[in-house]
Amino acid sequence: MRHPITGQDFDSPVPPGTGWPGDPADARTTVAHSAPDVERLAATGGVHDLDARSSVCRACPRLVEWREQVAREKRAAFADQPYWGRPVASLGDVAPRLLVVGLAPAAHGANRTGRMFTGDRSGDWIHAALFRAGFATQPESVHAGDGLELVGARIVAPVRCAPPGNAPTPLERHTCAPWLDRDLELAAPTLTGILALGGIGWAATVGAALRLGWTVPRPRPKFTHGAEAELGSPHGPIRLVGSYHVSQQNTFTRRLTEPMLDAALARAAGGPRRRDDRGLAGVYAGEAPVAQPAEASHLKWPKCGFESRRGYRSRNDHRTAPQEPWGTRRSMRALTPVTRLPSEGTHP
Ligand code: SF4
Predict the structure, then answer these.
(1) CA-based radius of gyration for the chain
(2) Bigger pLDDT: 129 or 278?
(3) Where does the record place the region Disordered (predicted)?
């Protein structure tokens, strides 16, 4: 079947390295077949390696079967299109100021188009907001290959395969977590803000910060729309801001409006920013790197005798390590068997 933008023929799911726009992998990319594989492959390499390896991952048998079944069977409205049918890699700038943390690909959205928040209504919302804030080159996100670029922003997901019923299991979220951890770790040197979409995106971000040994306020910050918390990375403080998810359920009912989303995005981005001649405000020519404020010095890492998985030292590692919400057997037992995500087709 022909790609709707390029007209090239593809199988569904799409084999890596066959020409799909933005495909970060090729036939030689190492494939993860288990949770230890994911942990090992996510621990090394740069952003391109991360994107390539995560886009061919097969570590969760149930999700692999589901995403590929959806890709073969398709929805009637897209019956003439090839489906990506693989994990969806993060989208955007390799050195972002702003990270947007979503949930998981939608079966007929990103699982079809192969790009985060692309091909469904929730994508229309977040990309329009990123465009208004100067982080996107266009307000629409129709399909991979449509010309969209994010500048200064990167969109990531805690679970990178479309889950049946929009409900990944705790084990699947735990297996996928190293990809998210690595995204945060690689972004940290330039990162100043994170916009977490929904309570699951918020919890995933806090969990990743804890696993990375970043400082997280105590008591643990709770999600609500407009909630804010400061995370302490080795490179300085990062502002975490919560927003209701851009799901159809939230936007149709006006629980989330455009001004609400714009305000949360502006807070996460550090307020209104000067734009370049393309109208982009993310990372623009001529601007010096963002200096870390002097107060950040208290977030440096004094030795405390405990070393986290990533090798960072944190003054409260000894308190935070046993409380990782997604990263430990203890926390997995505390979770309900399945956490439901917003309704089908309403998230990245
Ligand atoms: S959900 Fe994550 S860990 Fe599981 S198969 Fe997909 S990319 Fe791999």
Answers:
(1) 19
(2) 129
(3) 1-29, 308-348
Report in angstroms the alpha-carbon separations of 313 from 182, 211, 292, 295: 17, 11, 19, 19
Spatial CB neighbours of 309, under 8 Å, sequence gap ≥ 6 = 211, 213
What residue ranges do the domains of the chain occupy?
A: 89-279+297-334
DSSP 8-state class, residue 136: B
CA distance 323 to 157: 21
Cβ(88) to ligand 1 under 6 A? Answer: no
Q: What is the pTM of this model?
A: 0.81
Is 89's C-beta closer than 6 angstroms to any atom of ligand 1?
no
Closest among 11, 213, 193, 35 to 99, alpha carbons compared: 193
Instruction: Give the closest residue (by CA) to ligand 1 atom 3.
Output: 176
Instruction: Specify the fold of 89-279+297-334.
Output: Uracil-DNA Glycosylase, subunit E (3.40.470)
